[in-house]
Amino acid sequence: MHDSDSKQEKSDYLRDGVDRRKNVVDTRDPGTGLERRRGPGRRRSDFMKSAEEGEMSGEQFLFIKAIDAYKRVNNRPYPTWTEVLEVIRKLGYRKTAGMELDIAGAEDWTEAADAPSFIKSEDTLDSEAA
What we know:
Layout: H1 2-16, H2 46-52, H3 58-74, H4 81-90, H5 122-129
C-alpha cells in the first residue's frame, strides 16, 4: 500500500507542478546568424525545412551538381574551402550585397555583379607562361 501511495503523490506532483516550458529563457548570445539550433520560439524557415527533408531548390541542386562535378574531374573527394569558393564563383556568384551576419573580426566588402571570378585554371596559367 505504501508503494501505491508514493506513486499517487508523484503523479499529483507531476500533474500539479509548474510547467517548466513556460520558464524557458534563451540565454545564448545573439550569435552570428548562422546558428543551426533554433532555441525557444525560433522555427526553421521553409527553405531550411525543405532542404533538410530532401527537397532541394534549383539553386541547391545546381550547387550540389557543381561540387560533385568538381570532385570527379579533379579526383578530390574532399575539396578545400578555397576550392568550394572557386566553384561558387564559377557558378556566377559575386558578393554584391552587405553581410547579414555578425562575424567578429571580419571586414565586409562588396564587388560589382560582373566582376571576374579571378580564378585561373592551369590551362590559363600554362598559356601565360609560354
